[in-house]
Amino acid sequence: MKRIVLFVLTNLAVMLVLGVALSIIMPLLGIRPEQGGMAPLLVFAAVFGMGGAFISLAMSKWTAKRMVGAQVIDQPRNDTETWLLNTVRRQAELAGIGMPEVAIYDAPDVNAFATGWNRDAALVAVSTGLLHNMSRDEAEAVLGHEISHVANGDMVTLALIQGVVNTFVIFFSKLFGIMVDRVLLKNDGRSGRGIGAFVAEMAAQLVLGVLASMIVMWFSRQREFRADAGGASLAGRNKMIAALEKLKINHEQTVLPEKMAAFGISGGKGMTRLFMTHPPLEERIEALRAGN
C-alpha cells in the first residue's frame, strides 16, 4: 500500500509544481487562457508535462543508484559478480542492446530492476536478497526479464505515456480553474484570477492525477507480460517460471523503494488492481505456461 501511495503522490507533487510554475510563467508572457489563449495553454502544458517526464527519465539511473545505494560493478571482486557481468553481457548481445551497467544493492527482498533513458546505456541492478535466495538459473531468468525491459524500450515508453497524461492533467485542471473562477465565483478576470481558481485548479490536478496514474499503471502491468516472455526467450521458459514461483514465495518480503517499484520484477500487492504496477504473479506464471 505505501509503495502505491508514494508512487502516486510523487507524480502528483511533480504535476502540482509544474502547474504552479505554469501559472506564474504564462501571465508574465501575456498568455491568458481565460481570454481565449487555449492553444498556447496546450503548448505550455505539453512542454511542462512531457518535459517533466523526460527529465525524470534522464535522471533515472543517477536517482536509482542513490535511492537503493546500488554499487556498480566496475571490476568483479568474486565469482558471483563475474557471473553477473557475463550473464548480462551475453543477454544484452542476444537482445541487440548495448552493455548495461550492472549493480548490486543491499536489500533482503528478492528483486531486481532496470532503468535508463537509452537502451544502449541502461542500468540493471539486483538485490543481495535475490543473489542469496535464488539459484543461478532463476537469477538468469530475472536478468533476462530486466534486459527485455531495456530492449523493449519500456522506460522510454513509460515516460512518453506519463508525459502525455501529465499534459492533459495540467491542461484540463487549468480549464477547470477558469470555469470555477468565471461561472461559480463570477470573476470577470479584470484583476486576474482569484484564489478560488487556483484552489480549484490544484484540486483538479489531484483528482485527474490519480485517474492518470491508473492509465500509467495499466501500461506497467502489460509490459510485465512482455518482459516475462522476453526473459523466457533469453533464459528459457522453465527458468522464468521457476523464478516467478520463487518470487511468489517471497512476495511478503519488503519490496523496492516506492519510486523504483514500477521498474522491478516483483511488484508486491497494491490496494486495488487499478493501482498495481505489476500483474499478480499467478497470472504471469499462467501466461508463461500457456505460451503467451
Model description:
By secondary structure, the chain is mainly alpha-helical. Helix content is 65%, strand content 5%. The protein has a 4-stranded mixed sheet with strand order 1-2-4-3, with helices on both faces. α1 (2-28) crosses α8 (195-235) and α6 packs across α9 (237-249). The longest helix is centred in the C-terminal third of the chain and has 41 residues, at 195-235. The chain starts with a helix and ends with a helix. Residues 1-8 have low confidence and may be disordered.
Topology at a glance:
Layout: H1 2-28, H2 38-58, H3 60-68, E1 71-72, H4 79-95, E2 101-105, E3 112-115, E4 123-127, H5 128-133, H6 136-151, H7 154-184, H8 195-235, H9 237-249, H10 281-289
Helix pairs in contact: 1-2, 1-7, 1-8, 2-7, 4-6, 6-8, 6-9, 7-8, 8-9, 9-10
Q: Which descriptors would you attach to this protein?
A:
10 helices; 292 residues; four-stranded mixed sheet; mainly alpha; 4 strands; disordered N terminus
Category by helix and strand content? mainly alpha
Radius of gyration: 22 Å
Strand content: 5-15%
Biggest sheet strand order reads: 1-2-4-3
Query: Can you give the mean pLDDT?
Result: 80
List low-pLDDT spans: 1-8
Report the biggest beta sheet as strand number plus sense, adding barrel if it closes. Answer: 4 strands, mixed
Order of helices and strands: HHHEHEEEHHHHHH
